[in-house]
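Why this split exists: single-chain examples teach little about how molecules sit against one another. For that reason, every record in the complexes split bundles all components of an assembly together and asks for one structure covering all of them. Below is a record exactly as it appears in the raw files.
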Amino acid sequence: SQTIHQWPATLVQPVGSPLSLECTVEGTSNPNLYWYRQAAGRGLQLLFYSVGIGQISSEVPQNLSASRPQDRQFILSSKKLLLSDSGFYLCAWSLPSPGGTEAFFGQGTRLTVV
Amino acid sequence: AQKVTQAQTEISVVEKEDVTLDCVYETRDTTYYLFWYKQPPSGELVFLIRRNSFDEQNEISGRYSWNFQKSTSSFNFTITASQVVDSAVYFCALSEALYGGSQGNLIFGKGTKLSVKP
C-alpha cells in the first residue's frame, strides 16, 4: 500500500532563516506530487505540483520554491522566511493522470515564523 | 475559471442530528471531478469520496451520503445521526480533466467546520 511521509510535524523559525520541508511517498512510482498551504481560517492553496523528476510548476508567485530530486521525494524550500509564510503545509500525491484522481495527503507541517 | 464555494463557515449540531454540508462549484468544462475531504483536529486530510461529472447517482456510505445535482452545480454532503467523532473541517474540491499532459489539480473550497456536541 502507498504511504506518504512528511516532516517535521511542527517548526518554529525566525524571520529571515531558511526553510526545508521534506515529503516522501512509498509504494507507488511516478506519482504526481503537490505542496499545499493552509493559512489560519482559510482553505487550501496549491503552491507547487510536479509530474516528474525535476518538473515543477508553481501556482502562486511567492517566497518559496520546490524541488523534486528523486521520483518520490518532494522538497519545499525558502532562502529567507517571511512572517507571512506561517501556516500549515501539506504534501500530497496522486496517481499520474490527466485529472480526476484523488490526492492523498501527509500529516502536514505547522510552520510558525517568528 | 474554477471555483468551489462552501457558504457555511461553521455548523454546530447535537449528537444524533442529521447535518448537510453545502458545496457549490463553478467550471466551464463538461468533464470534471468532485471530492470531499475531512480534516480532523490532527490536521491530516482524509479522502472521503470522488464523483465524476457524468455520474449523478447519489451515493451512500454508512452514515454519509452525497447528493450531486448538475442542474444547480451542487455536491452536498449529509451526515446522518451525527457523532462527536464527526467533528472536523470538511472540504469540497473540484478537479477538471485536462489532457495532453496537463494536470488537473484540486481546487478546494474554504471548508466548513462541523462541531458535534454530545
